[in-house]
Amino acid sequence: MAFPRTYPPEFIDAAVRRVADTRSVKAYGAVTTVARQLDLDPRRVQKWVTRATTPTQPQNRDLTNGREARLAPGLLHCGRCRQPMNRTTPPGAPGTYRCPPGCRRQPLDSAAITDTVGRVILRHAARILPTTSAPLPPCLAAAHAHRVLARVTVGATASDIALTWRPALPPERTDKNPARRVTGARDIARRQPVRARQLLHQILTGVDPATAPAHPLHADAAALLAELHLRHGRAADATIWAAYAHRSAVQLHGHSHPDSLRALHLHAAVQRHAGHHQRAYHLYRQLGGHLSNSDGPHSPRTLAIHATTALVLHDLGHCHAAHILLTDTIATHRQQHPGHPAATRMTRQLTRIHGDCVARGHQHDT
After folding, report:
1. Across the chain, what does the average pLDDT equal?
2. Distance CA 155, CA 159 (A)
3. Of 7, 72, 1, whose CA–CA distance to 38 is shortest?
4. What fold does the segment set 167-265 form as a domain?
5. How many whole angstroms separate alpha carbon 141 and alpha carbon 68?
6. Contact at 8 Å (CB) between 77 and 152?
7. If both were cysteines, with which of 177, 188, 270, 361 could 192 make a disulfide (CB 3.0 to 4.6 Å apart)?
8. What pTM does this model have?
9. Angle at CA 118, nearest 5°, toward 208 and 219?
10. Average of pLDDT values for 348-359?
């Protein structure tokens, strides 16, 4: 069965930025490296990069050269309405940042904002940037600003910017036991999620999830940070850290290790909530295969993943295939685990899928 591959513009832009960042570290193989990290066809990534860079003339630092990168989602706020500003890219026009309706009449130039922020990062926080043979331009340095900045507030013009830096930990806590800080972040995650995110960002300062090597401490911190982002509805922020945590766990422990399976489950859930249903489907399929080998094909965990895979199929628009898979999963669950409450939840999900098909006028043989 062929499944459609659709990716939102934000995901494509992030992939192109990763290629640019990777090329600043290694001269060759950047597209292939990023494609492997994102589980994509290298030809697709190359097509995105070509499309993004075709209008660009030889690299320079002119703000209009098309190379400016986006700030992390949610980082830029309006100084008037105090709300996050969203980046838009009108067809044939430079990118801009806009407030919610009713605030500014005119949008602000995205390139000017990223240039200003990037120059501050180059001046005061160059340690967080990838090591390169040539200095990064401000527009690319701005893509790393969220690691040291908690907020960027813009006033009346694109150059009227105030920066809120993330609080630094005392030196003795920073240097002695970073693993304890991960444990501390986990302990306060539910009571003080903002403080927990700050701790984790400090641990991960200077770690580029697209290119960083596997590291047990960083993988643990990245997984917890992705969970926090996902829990608070910031799936787009969670994707890069969940992918890094999964890749690191596999490199450190192998595919079938419990830590790798937990990271794979998190990665799949993040991709689904971010709207990347095709990638989520393949990740859930992988997880179902691993659990079938480790727990057995009829274990509650394996069947739960099969049920979730059916929901992702429905998200992709394959409602008939989703209906069949979920129906078979429910029948197996009731036979193997009579009285288990999960079967009731699956039945409610099946009813929702059926209701959606009826509402859309689908005709399926059931």
Report:
1. 80
2. 8
3. 7
4. 1.25.40
5. 9
6. yes
7. 188
8. 0.55
9. 15
10. 85
Is residue 48 within 8 A of residue 15, CB to CB? The reply is yes
Percentage of the chain exceeding pLDDT 70: 83
Instruction: Tell me the per-residue pLDDT of 35-70, one tens digit each, with 9 for 90 and over.
Output: 877 778 888 888 887 776 543 333 333 333 444 567
Both structure tokens of 104? 């500014």
* Angstrom distance (rounded) from CA 333 to CA 303: 7
Domain boundaries, the chain: 7-54, 65-165, 167-265
**Euclidean distance between CA atoms 358 and 364, whole angstroms:** 10
pLDDT digits (tens, 9 = 90+) for 266-317: 999 999 998 899 999 999 999 999 999 999 999 999 999 999 999 999 988 8
Structure tokens, 218:
């960083």
C-alpha distances in Å from residue 264, one per residue of 62, 194, 349: 41, 25, 23
Over residues 182-199, the pLDDT tens digits come to: 787 778 777 888 888 878
Q: At what angle do helices 178-188 and 193-203 cross, to 10 degrees?
A: 160
Which amino acid is present at 192?
A: Q
The pLDDT value recorded for residue 268 is: 95
Residue 153 burial (CB < 10 Å; 0-12/13-18/19+)?
middle
Determine phi and psi for 332, rounding to 5 degrees.
Answer: -65, -40
Say how far residue 13 (Cα) sits from the centre of its chain: 12
